[in-house]
Amino acid sequence: MALSLPSGLVPTEVAFLCEMEMITIVPRQRLESIPMLSGKTPALRPPRRADLPLWLALLLKKQRRANIVPPPWLLPASLQEIVHLETNYDPEAFSPPPPPPMRSDGRGVARPYATTTRSGNEDKELILAPPFLPSCTQDAPSGYLPYHWLEIAETLLAHAADDIPNAPEVRALLRDLQEVRAAKMRASTRHLEGGGGVLNIRGVGAMELAESRGFVLGVVDGVRKLGASAEAGRREELERGDDEDESDDDMGL
Amino acid sequence: MDIDDILREVDPASQSIPAETRDLQALTRAWVSERSSPELLQYVHILPYPPIAPTTPVLTRRFPSVYSWPADGLFERINDRIKQQIERVEEMTGDMDPKTNFALIVIQTELERFKYLVRSYLRARIAKVFEKSIAATADLRARLSETEQAYATRHQALLHNHYLSSFLSAFPPTLQNLNDTAGNISMIETPDLDTAVFIRLLKETLVEGHGTDMDDDMDGKSGDIVILRWSDAKSLVDSGHAEVV
Amino acid sequence: MSYYDIDAILTDAEKVPCKFELDIPELGYLDNNPAQPLKSGTTVGLPLWLAELLALANRAPSSADEEAKSFVSLNLPPSLSNEVMSALKADPRAVPLRDQSHNFYGLGTRMLDLFEEKEICAILRRTFVTRAADIALHAGKAGATDDMGIGGGEEFLRGLEEWERKLFKKAHDGAKGSKEWMEGVKKHRR
């Protein structure tokens, strides 16, 4: 019964993860607050909007108890802007992820939404990250693709296309984005020949990672193994150099 | 409790993210890390509950502040809530009112999601115990929960027995070892800690990575997604500067 | 290297040329000459595990003024010869690596452990990364069409050695997984 899945989340697991993203709905029926394991849901009072996890929003949508408010970044104008950014701004890097959501700390100071401390102990703080950052609610910024952009977009198009303005255009723009970004993902491995120690791919999406993970990590590991003897030689030389420096110091004393 | 604690208590910013959400984030992070890192990680630590006075308010009883957060007692808190939730489901099942019925569907759906998370987390760990002979090294044993230790010990014993009765007993005793290191090859398989991983930076931090032709460093920003060796990533992950993705 | 790794075991069995440094009686059959002893200076292909052992082990000097010598001296296998390296330098994609050795890179890393060959190391890495980009392209196509034998790419894919085949499978599985998920979601479309 050992796990037969490869290391790293596979696409279906990524989809499970993205269903925890909060999304804004417009309820069509009243619904009292439900005591869930992940916290109480807000009481739903049409037409007052509310934020719910995507899986629950989809459940309400299926039962026609609510409509979904698409996140601002999924609107055609926003997607056009991102396509423009992806194709014209930097041929190698992904467009930047949304800025960290801020909120007032109650004393008029804005601070990152992501940080929550408990007992005032900075060491024990918990920093929220996707899917627990509100990057798909009505307040999310437009013009930025959040980490779960592709999964969220496809899921909403499949289950709530009637809530998305100009769905066919959104679909076409998403295809464009997928293509230009897939080419960037493939190109990223070209930088790996020298076997540098750190490669930043800021802005990449979860589904894109799941798709390319095995390949990209396979290339990195292969280059490392092919270069292992060269690396060991380089480290020996470095160490020898350090030793010489030290003996110089000794003489100085 | 000093003045800072009191101020924090009334501070809406630290209140607005419910403890339940934080626990779900912690559990989800533990699951993703275990699924994506080459070696077995420390089990999400469990501490026994301290004796609590019956007058303690429910909320503080469930989240005793003496415990550092997030990991300690995480599984117990979640298991506790799951238990309560199942009781609630049982109470609600008799009620045929369609409104309660929908709430029931929601609660049960969410229960299934939690079950999946917890089970997939445990399975990912067991798979690593299975693959690598974890029972053999003390350092790795310390990362297992009590039940996982029992599992690993029994698994190792069963496997050895199976080998013995299938073929190993025909060998002379000196060749029956399963932890031989002859010919510079250890029979005990260990994970390759230099395997590359993806991490997401949670804070601004210096990221240093060993490379073939050169070692790199970069001033990482929160939200950066970085490919580097697990051996270089581990300290960033352990200190909470980054998470495995 | 790990104990249960089949590829590592198969790599260990790859033959490498070894020049014997002494006459060995009754081993002439290794050189198709069973009546004679194996002559010093003869080159015979031996499996890597044995070759490594004989090359690294020192035999006792036969006389006081002779230095300690090994039994055989090792040479680079033909798959890492100058000709192959030049061909890879010219166009990494044009060489069917599988014909050189099923475990081309595995053998390469083992030889690089024994010989300090910076240029071979650099060529192997460039070859691996360049071919990987093509592997990703082909695997992406195969994942998207559910068809492992892709039009046009067969010749290149046939020439993949073991590391590359694994890489192809990883890239293919990734593309397939995400495509399957996408199709699953779209089925729900109303």
TrEMBL record, chain A:
GO BP: chromosome segregation; DNA replication; double-strand break repair via break-induced replication
KW Cytoplasm (keyword) present: no
Region entry Disordered, spans: 230-253
Subcellular compartments: Nucleus
The species this protein was found in: Xylaria hypoxylon
Gene3D superfamilies: 1.20.58.1020, 3.40.5.50
Domain DNA replication complex GINS protein PSF2 N-terminal: 11-69
Composition skew (Acidic residues), residue ranges: 239-253
Highest classification ranks of the organism: Eukaryota, Fungi, Dikarya, Ascomycota, Pezizomycotina
Keyword line: Chromosome partition, DNA replication, Nucleus
UniProt protein name: DNA replication complex GINS protein PSF2
Summary of the function given for this chain in its UniProt record: The GINS complex plays an essential role in the initiation of DNA replication. Has a role in chromosome segregation.
UniProtKB/TrEMBL annotation, chain B:
Record's keyword annotation contains Nucleus: yes
PANTHER family: DNA REPLICATION COMPLEX GINS PROTEIN SLD5 (PTHR21206:SF0), SLD5 PROTEIN (PTHR21206)
Protein family: Belongs to the GINS4/SLD5 family.
Keyword entries, A-Z: DNA replication, Nucleus
Top-level lineage group: Eukaryota
Name recorded for this polypeptide: DNA replication complex GINS protein SLD5
GO biological process: DNA-templated DNA replication; double-strand break repair via break-induced replication
GO terms for cellular component: GINS complex
Keyword Nucleus recorded: yes
Domain DNA replication complex GINS protein SLD5 C-terminal: 191-245
Species of the source: Xylaria hypoxylon
One Pfam family from the record: Sld5
Residue stretches making up the GINS subunit domain: 91-165
Major location (coarse): nucleus
Subcellular location: Nucleus
Role noted for this protein: The GINS complex plays an essential role in the initiation of DNA replication.
UniProtKB/TrEMBL annotation, chain C:
GINS subunit domain span: 80-182
Signal peptide: none
UniProt subcellular location: Nucleus
Keywords: DNA replication, Nucleus
Listed GO biological process terms: mitotic DNA replication initiation
Pfam families in alphabetical order: PSF3_N, Sld5
Family: Belongs to the GINS3/PSF3 family.
Superkingdom to which the source organism belongs: Eukaryota
Gene Ontology cellular component terms for the protein in this record: GINS complex
UniProt keyword Nucleus present: yes
Name assigned to this protein: DNA replication complex GINS protein PSF3
Subunit structure: Component of the GINS complex.
Domain annotation DNA replication complex GINS protein PSF3 N-terminal: ranges: 4-55
Function recorded in the entry: The GINS complex plays an essential role in the initiation of DNA replication.
